[in-house]
């Protein structure tokens, strides 16, 4: 799969589906060098804007036509991610289709039809890894969505990897997380030590794993409010407003959460200013009274619902007490878009404070709709602001303010901590933010270090963490009830039947997998391949040097280590070197070098006695122990012909050859001719004065032997 691992997360939200591609270094690459850097850090996950694609509407809109979900909705998303992931990595890349609040509003039967259609289409049209539909394609609950967002936020801010740089006091170094979409809102945070002990049963045990294989555990409180997203909250507001104004005797209903003189249907369609309006159906006309908008949206928090487990925040939902001295919250999605996007171009200050933000909203919503339209045409509020966003911003702003300050209880920074309405609390927040980081009670963000904060990233962090090879006796990565060990409701980030093994590359593909890191795997003390790798490396070097040293040096090496023994010797070769075929001396050209190098001593084996088997072949091997030129040895008693080339007469050699002629019917013409040539050398030429040096003075005269005519 190369040096990168990939994961695809499809965030199937209520308004659309967004495909994310994430990657991180493969454990085969990172584990050998982990002892040098990033030992206790989580995997380094990366992505970019070009790897993300969003289409609308959401998957929940296919409830009545699930068969069209694949070709109409999933296909462009899958085509996009397959162009991002290298072809060789596709089969190992998991894909997750995780639906949120929009799907939660559907019936279980409609959910099942949509999820089945999605899983079947992906399996039939891609090679992405999807081993278990129930794990990879599903509707996640609000708590899981909130937990993923909490993971992503702390991962990007550094709360996990660098706790010493994010010390909030009381041994606390993580950030709270707030998310709001169209249908639901989530809250996640790690309570202080006192609240964690009091509400231990309400917490989720989260277990991650660093690149070193050691676990990181956190105890987090997570809750979700379905129906508290901006779209669903607006629907509840419209219904309440229609009930309260039903006795007005007219279809024209005043709406304080719309800019002045803006007319719109109850479904949210903006009506032309001069066009006739039907009196059959009620419609809204904006008054631009933001203070009244705040008052009318307050009941939507449902704070009057009985609290069965004190303390509670919204809709009677229990939440441990929040210690804002150590719990600093980061808000994404609508928290960011509503507090920043509408004022992005007209105001340079980016940080949120209640006083500054509320004054800006009042100014905007009190404007006449015609004036706002002119500002939109002139890009006064940036390219992203259109009439639809301008229509929604007043209600969204009122809802966000109520949720944050009257619902969750976040201090009104700028109102409670500044002197007057003329004070720019945003500049104060920015000033302190540069010194302290995200240490204010609330801060809305969109990106951290160019990476968008989304719960999908949290899912990717959890999955990548689970793929880090574990240390000994390490519990699995995942989350569940806050009990020791592995709770019954423990959720694994991947299919639980797929084990996490130590990173071993497939046979034959080690080079491709490790790339430039082969030296780390070979010489790193933590690598299980260290010793075998070194031995293999030394053996390869030895063999290469052996063959590069030349034939002469190898010959001398044979003699020094006593490698060979005469074929005619009664003793057989012993030892390991004799059994290695690539260390044996080549025998076929030996007899051709006799004339050229003046062969010192050799023995002729394979000429058997009457009692021996008749072998069809004969091999020549150097003698294990050969006497010098001045020490000839004649073994007339031995049944095999043995002789030494020296200054002796040729008569005895000829007699011996004649004696063996009848017993051997093998063509030895070449052998005898060459042997005879040596025996015909003049004694004076090969005299002792030459001390055994080679003789090349003249060519010997060839005599006929009994073999010559064979």
UniProtKB/TrEMBL annotation:
- Basic residues bias (residue ranges): 693-710
Q: Does the keyword Membrane apply?
A: yes
* One Gene Ontology cellular component: Golgi apparatus
What Gene3D superfamilies does the entry give? 3.30.420.40, Exopolyphosphatase. Domain 2
Q: Name one Pfam family in it.
A: GDA1_CD39
Q: Where do the catalytic residues lie?
A: 145
What GO terms in the biological process aspect are recorded for it?
Answer: CTP metabolic process; UDP catabolic process
Could you cite one Gene Ontology molecular function of this protein? GDP phosphatase activity
For this protein, the record's InterPro entries field holds: GDA1_CD39_NTPase
Give the record's keywords alphabetically: ATP-binding, Hydrolase, Membrane, Nucleotide-binding, Transmembrane, Transmembrane helix
Can you say what this protein is called? Golgi apyrase
Q: Which organism is it from?
A: Uncinocarpus reesii (strain UAMH 1704)
